[in-house]
Sequence to fold (162 residues):
Amino acid sequence: MADWEIKRTLGQCYGSGEEFKVGEEYFAALVDTDEGFERRDYSVACWQEQKPETYCYWKTKMPDSEKKRNLFVDDDMLMTFFERLGSETRQEKLDFRFVLALILMRKRILKYDSSKTDNGAEVWTLRVTGEKRMVEVANPHLDEERIEQLSTQIGQVLQMDM
Fold:
């Protein structure tokens, strides 16, 4: 199983190298590389001029390091990210998606419905709360340490406490 880490913002534009000012809006993006997801941040101007090909992205503001951060990530964005990972086949992305499912279950966005064995793998069927729609996620049977590693990575990517 490949290990990869998604880093926090470096506080500068990936395209231009310019540092972000406190309160400045910028785009944070996940780029799919051979080594896994890599976070890259872009100023609004750079984003508009040369929008890079990304796996997913979100708009955020440069925080004031002096202030305590009040972190919030939209549940729809988490769900969209979870669904985008649905067609992935690489194990590290399947692991990442499973931990996202656990987070979404904890937030009561997904509810466990049932499980089945498909080609020797355990697959959970989850109901999307407030909808009749069902989604499936493979259970990779991660140990607690691996779940913690992935939760930390997700928190770093999305700038939220897990």
Notes: Residues 24 and 61 are 5 Å apart (CA to CA).
